[in-house]
Amino acid sequence: MKTERSHTLASTCRLYVGTSGYSYTDWTEAGFYPPGSGRADMIDLYAQRFPITELNHTWYQLPRAETIERQRRRVPLHFRFAAKLTRSLTHEIDFQRRPVLASGYRDGVAPLTQTRQLTAVLVQLPSTFDRTLHHRRLLAALLDMLRDLPLAVEFRHRSWAEDRVLQELERRRIALVVADGPQLPDRFPDLAAVTNPELFYVRFYGRSARGWVSGKTSHQFDYSYSEEQLREWIEDRIALLGSRARTGILFFANHTRAQAPKNALRMMALLRERGMAVV
């Protein structure tokens, strides 16, 4: 794969920074939310600090329009959402019900598409989903089913790191998700590639290799990015990505002990310091 570095000032790209999920009880203990904050209050408090969030509950089960509408009504109209695609369409695939599930997902997020608050649907593929002919056909069929939604694909197996894959995403105008995480065997590299000129999408997992190898979520997302690491990301990747897309969304998933919002707020400050258009 070709890699590039750029120091171009990307002042025209609108950048939205937030976290993957927002309703973590330990964020109250860590001081991000005020003492006594309940889960129902958290999205209101979160929206006072951030312009976007990545919905996690849509991965565990099909979203319900009523639930999504309640969340939407708790935030300002300018607030944006990304939503994970349900696992029954990406991980625990029910082949016979796939078209029905895809339609159900579309109906569930309809409140956000109707108000144009849905910036992206995250198609997160498992690490075992390598680039075999069977998997290529499965993915192509899924993308066809959801082609009317703003899609972003996160590959986790390095076999997908091919120019022809990026070219197909470009043809479909689907964003490639760039993910920062520990260096593990067969992990998809964090390519600074823009496959949709309307959107680039970055996810920060943290770099705790121990947690990813063990599978313990308590360790997996227990990581805090240093200021130097955030600055390196801005100079080496975000500046380039932002020079090639109209909008960029960046999510921190290192949620343990409220490290994600802490890092996200610092990233916003550094981007503004760099002269970038942070929403």
Structure in words:
The protein has 279 residues and is α/β, with parallel strands linked by helices. The chain has one domain (14-278): TIM Barrel (Alpha-Beta Barrel), CATH 3.20.20.410. It is 38% helix and 17% strand. It is built from 12 helices and 9 strands. Strands 1-2-3-4-5-6-7-8 form an 8-stranded parallel barrel. Helix 7 links the parallel strand 4 and strand 5. The longest helix has 16 residues, at 227-242.
Helix content: 25-40%
Figure out the total of helices. Answer: 12
| CATH fold label | TIM Barrel
* Mean model confidence by pLDDT: 93
The first-level CATH class is given as: Alpha Beta
Poorly predicted ranges: 2-9
Rg from Cα: 18 Å
Morphology: globular
Could you spell the SSE succession in H and E letters? Answer: EHHEHHEHHEHEHEEHHHEHE
Structural class: alpha/beta
Give the CA-CA distance, first to last residue.
32 Å
Strand order of the largest sheet: 1-2-3-4-5-6-7-8
Percent strand equals: 15-25%
For the report, how would you describe the main beta sheet? Answer: 8 strands, parallel, barrel
The appropriate CATH architecture is: Alpha-Beta Barrel
The tally of beta strands, per DSSP, is 9
Determine the CATH superfamily: Protein of unknown function UPF0759
| Overall tally of structural domains | 1
